[in-house]
Amino acid sequence: MATGTDPQAATPSEREAATSGVRSPSRAAIPARHLRTDRWWLAPAVTAAGLFAFIVYSTWRAFAGDNYYAEPYVSPFYSPCVAQNCVPMKDGANWEIFGAWWGLSPALLILIFPLGFRLTCYYYRKAYYRGFWASPPACAVAEPRANYTGETRFPLILQNIHRYFFYFAVIVAGILTYDTVLAFRDEHGRWGHMGLGTLVLLANIALIWAYTLSCHSCRHIVGGRLKHFSRHPVRYRLWGWVSSLNARHMQLAWASLISVAVADFYVFLLASGAFDDPRFF
Amino acid sequence: MSAYEAHFRVWRGDVDGGGLRDFRVEVNEGEVVLDIVHRLQATQAPDLAVRWNCKAGKCGSCSAEINGQPRLLCMTRMSVFSRDETITLTPLRAFPVVRDLVTDVSFNYTKAREVPSFVPPEGLGPGEYRMQQEDVGRSQEFRKCIECFLCQDTCHVLRDFEQNKEAFAGPRFLMRVSELDMHPLDAAGEAGIDRKRAAQDEHGLGYCNITKCCTEVCPEGIKITDNALIPLKERAVDRKYDPLVWLGNKIRRREG
Amino acid sequence: MTQVERQAWDVVVIGAGGAGLRAAIEAREAGMRCAVICKSLFGKAHTVMAEGGIAASMGNVNEGDNWQVHFRDTMRGGKFLNHWRMAELHAQEAPDRVWELETWGALFDRTPDGRISQRNFGGHEYPRLAHVGDRTGLELIRTLQQKIVSLQQEDHAETGDYEARLKVFQECTVTRIVKDAAGEKVAGVFGYERESGRFFAIEAPAVVLATGGIGKSFKVTSNSWEYTGDGHALALLAGAPLINMEFVQFHPTGMVWPPSVKGILVTESVRGDGGVLRNSEGKRFMFDYIPDVFKEKYAQSEDEGDRWYEDPDHNRRPPELLPRDEVARAINSEVKAGRGSPHGGVFLDVSTRMPAEVIKRRLPSMHHQFKELADVDITAEPMEVGPTCHYVMGGVDVDPDTAAASGVPGLFAAGEVAGGMHGSNRLGGNSLSDLLVFGRRAGLHAARYAQEAAASGTRPVPDDAQLDLAAAEALRPFSAEDGELPSAVSAGSAAEQPAGPAENPYTLHQELQQTMNDLVGIIRRAGEMEDALHRLAALRVRARRAGVEGHRQFNPGWHLAIDLRNMLLVSECVARAALERTESRGGHTRDDCPEMDREWRRVNLVCRLSDPSAGLAAPTDPGRGQIRLERRETPPIRPDLLNLFEKDELVKYLTDEELTQ
């Protein structure tokens, strides 16, 4: 094998796989799991590494519960902030829905929604099915298991609720937009100011919206579900617009993932005092 | 560029067994892999079995795997390989082998029959159909399909799990369901056929985990996953996973 | 006798292209059990290669169009050698056949008011071709395929068996039409499964030939391997005559580079949508090649030609859109005069005529084809093109209304394998409509014929002796190596044992293609065609020794060895008829007789097997010709149809005698 990485069949499942799939008796007798000569493992490996890095970073930041507000900036991980233990944010999306009994980081309450949106996203599904589950590892490379039910059963059948996470994602994006507007103040709450942090939040919210609106569910809702575009010219135009964004859904997914982490990290740097926000005016 | 000798490994055999055989064969400028297979037939292996037809990427007959990747033999130029590269040709590995590079693709014809056909609208005679270009555009993309079955071959649901073939129609035929569901004049609904629900209940749409290999191999460049399969999943969601509808059904069932 | 699997059906259709599938649908809808036999997989037939569109005078784009105009264009294109009745039926019925496809799910490109869009094409006065981008043939075959599946679903709902009344035997080759013991009526077919090599026989009172053309006898061709003239040969061997075999259409624009794709078609839509032909000097040379008969119909200046795309009512069309024979000859002359492109073609340019996005939208397959196969971006640079063997106008002599082959009860033919419809040259777009119109007619009348046979209790029974001979003939390539023939065959030809070593069928095929290409190609001369007949005779002798290795399971060498018989037969028809016709007309161009002769318009050349009794065993002396040629007067054109033309135009085609009648 060109890659030299073929593991010996070890687990019972893998032993079974050795006589099924491409190695079923009716198929052409070729012992190799695949005959690809290119670096097919590179794409899933990079994907897995990237996702893993984000998971490590976001877990740390989500559980940390501090250094997420540096007036006038709030980390996107902590907005809206809906617990009593939130740092007070001037005019911010800061509601005490959860009382003092909530002792954990307030990020955990709100991150479920963007997490659910991304977890059920058609692009991320592809990315982690390939990267983490090797299902499949790459095209025309055999899966290391003997059975597969896809998204037909619990829990993966829940992927079908992506649309409802999309609705929540729109709300969250709306709140983050509000946060970005608030970033046009100075540290004393006076309007008409801008700093590097404003730009960071602006870039982040632009990417968040682009990612959210390029979602396949959004494309379906705005027009994809129609049978006759010609009877709904406005929705047809919207659909065309979302479709062209949708073609870049993967790039937007990564760009917005990185921008969210960067925005959070920038706020962390400011809040922890490691860095001073350069003010433009 | 001048002629050179290339090293080929071609799978030869049948259902009882076989293996990769080595050939050294001449290659000339501008040739495609199918030309080399024909040269092998004419000079070294007259009984080498291969399917082909139009030799222009229009009929989808010469599907095989080149260096492990599902491709059309007639649309793979030799110039994409380096001269000292060994080129491995095998039959499609998702289907039963017949002989050499020829496989039994009858699975696909069986699945084709399971998709209910176009239902003509009542009250419209021949010549009375009126459809706008923007309304036929989506289905037209899917009708570019040349039925090479490379998507069926590469789809891990079929390729790696023989047992799923019964339940899963594969990308080609889910795309056919999509095509009909998006046809502006298809009257399936009026005839009591719910294509959206059937996509999941009868054609196994849930098995698809949208890993996009079908789109990657499509020689016609059809965006199978983004334009056919995901929209079909969303249409199934319309029917089945709207929580309000689901809750309503649940309550009514309890009462009943 | 040889053990063969036998089945009984009412109608057998050989070929699953447009004509075959349309015939099968009609026969099944007429209540008959119908079997379709095809060499490739179901849905892969050569019809998928048709790009431009289906000609039908629906008048969606220009209301001036009607069947009479279409009829006129067709007759002009065929230089009045067309069977007038076929041209009439074709023009009248084509719109219904297209509209019917929509009710089966076809999705053609649309006009702004939602009707089927129609495009311009060479030789058609108005925009007439219903199309889907440049993949109309694919749409046609897929629609018919899906209609067949839909009928099978109906049968399944009713009987529990998808194939109860309509079955496709894919990857099977028919090698013989089998008749009853008296040798009169069709009784079925004999063939083999390509996959397993097993023989089979299907008993059926009616057989429809829909096997397409003969292009694989030529080296540079747009045709696929299937086009070995099977139907033409089967008809001859069954005793039916072929007509007009000298007329072979060379499509003016095939790819010329790289060598491995030489001949692959470049659709006429490229010119219909604005593409122009230039020689190496950059000149639009077609203006120099407008023949007298077309002078009034075509633009005389580049400006006028360019204006026509925008305003077709007040300008004449550019000469790039002359009928195919004219354009092919012009390209040939330019290349011979040393004004060709680097690889021996001329330049076809759309890149300077349309924006890149428009090219990609209107000609997606061409863009893809050149990008993938020749590394040429047609939105930025011109294509190199040259003539390629594309279509045979000649074919089985049929009754225009019923598609019944003359002289053989129970045999029908439709599509490219049938002759007469297109005269000496076919217009682009008339092929797909021909398939539908006459495919339907063949299916309908075959079904009626089978019904009558069943009703009268005279269903013919295949003659066992013929089946045995057919099996022996098919097996011969396996015993050629050691010089022995199966007893059944050698008994009939004991005097002549093969001498010399076994021949490689691939080599024989290449030599045949080279011979036909060089000596009976686009421009013909008497001496060369005589030479070709000698070479064909020699090849025939060697073909008797064509031997193959291996076994019968999916053995392409064996398949080719069997197909060689058919290619040699039809090649001889082409060469003999071409030598006989001492004029130039449509797809037949003689260097030594360059003028069109009105007297020759009255003549159809009819090819028959010279020794029909030796039909089943090979002829005793393979060196002697197998084909006998007859002249037959063409039927007079009905007066009301003649009145559709101006007198001035008719005098160019008809003799004075015909005009005064």
TrEMBL record, chain A:
Residues 1-25 are annotated as: Disordered. This is Integral membrane protein. The chain crosses the membrane at residues 40-60, 98-117, 164-185, 191-211, 252-275. It comes from Streptomyces himastatinicus ATCC 53653. Keywords: Membrane, Transmembrane, Transmembrane helix. Residues 1-11 have a biased composition (Polar residues).
TrEMBL record, chain B:
This is Ferredoxin, 2Fe-2S. Belongs to the succinate dehydrogenase/fumarate reductase iron-sulfur protein family. Residues 6-93 form the 2Fe-2S ferredoxin-type domain. CDD domains: fer2. GO terms for biological process: respiratory electron transport chain; tricarboxylic acid cycle. Its cofactor is [3Fe-4S] cluster; [2Fe-2S] cluster; [4Fe-4S] cluster. Pfam families: Fer2_3, Fer4_8. Pathway: Carbohydrate metabolism; tricarboxylic acid cycle. GO terms for molecular function: 2 iron, 2 sulfur cluster binding; 4 iron, 4 sulfur cluster binding; electron transfer activity; metal ion binding; oxidoreductase activity. It comes from the Bacteria. Keywords: 2Fe-2S, 4Fe-4S, Iron, Iron-sulfur, Metal-binding, Oxidoreductase. GO terms for cellular component: plasma membrane. InterPro entries: 2Fe-2S_ferredoxin-like_sf, 2Fe-2S_ferredoxin-type, 2Fe2S_fd_BS, 4Fe4S_Fe-S-bd, Beta-grasp_dom_sf, Helical_ferredxn, SDH/FRD_Iron-Sulfur, Succ_DH/fum_Rdtase_Fe-S. Gene3D superfamilies: 3.10.20.30, Alpha-helical ferredoxin.
UniProtKB/TrEMBL annotation, chain C:
Residues 301-320, 483-504 are annotated as: Disordered. Residues 509-607 form the Fumarate reductase/succinate dehydrogenase flavoprotein-like C-terminal domain. Residues 10-432 form the FAD-dependent oxidoreductase 2 FAD-binding domain. One of its GO terms (molecular function) is steroid dehydrogenase activity, acting on the CH-CH group of donors. Keywords: FAD, Flavoprotein, Oxidoreductase. InterPro entries: FAD-dep_OxRdtase_2_FAD-bd (IPR003953), FAD/NAD-bd_sf (IPR036188), Fum_R/Succ_DH_flav-like_C_sf (IPR037099), Fum_Rdtase/Succ_DH_flav-like_C (IPR015939), SdhA/FrdA/AprA (IPR030664), Succ_DH/fumarate_Rdtase_cat_sf (IPR027477). Its cofactor is FAD. The active site is at 324 (proton acceptor). The keyword Oxidoreductase applies. The keyword Lipid biosynthesis does not apply. This is Putative FAD flavoprotein oxidase. It comes from Streptomyces himastatinicus ATCC 53653.
